[in-house]
Amino acid sequence: MKRTSRPLPRESPPGGTSNSSIEPAEQLRASIQRFVRSFGLLATDQTPCGTPISASYAHALVVLLERGQLGERATQQELGEALGIDKSNVARLCAKLQRAGHATQQRSASDGRARLLALTPSGRRLAERVQAASRDRFAQLLEALPTDETRRAVLTSLEALNRAIHATHLLEKSK
User: Fold this and answer.
1) Buried b / exposed e across 112-149, counting CB within 10 Å, b at 16+?
2) pLDDT digits (tens, 9 = 90+) for 126-148
3) Up-side HSE of residue 139: CA atoms within 13 Å toward CB?
4) CA dist., res. 137 & res. 112, Å (int)
5) What is the mean pLDDT of the chain?
6) For the chain, domain boundaries
7) Which CATH number is associated with domain 55-131?
8) Spatial strand order in the sheet of 74-75
9) For 81-105, what is each residue's pLDDT tens digit?
């Protein structure tokens, strides 16, 4: 697909002014930054849905909940891959989950270096609350979009963006 330097139309942020001469890559960057900030993704003390834990902690709980619902446990490495964080950050996150009584860690019988993670009953209850609050928040966002057509366009665009992100990560890893 041919790249174009033609500017795309841009919605103005509340109280802002529109500038239709912005390059598409700059518009994408600015739009994603505005989304991250306005959605509350930079807050370290609560999730965008208002749960008083960090977003990475909430995402870890939900990943472990989903694995547990499948009758599986995740390793630290698998959790790190699912969250897109490195080994040292996932190890600190897992230690924090364990200290809070939300998860357990034990060595894998098949690979003594791997640590298997599972939610405790307390962790499962918290993960279920986080998941329900998240679903409610996203349902509110979708409802705030004016039409079904707009909702479908947003969802289709986000899927395309996720595929592009995945493709660029694969390219970066192959270098």
Assistant:
1) eebbbbbbeeebbebbeebbebbeebeeeeeeeeeeee
2) 999 999 999 999 999 999 999 99
3) 6
4) 40
5) 87
6) 55-131, 145-175
7) 1.10.10.10
8) 74-75, 115-119, 103-107
9) 999 999 999 999 999 999 999 999 9
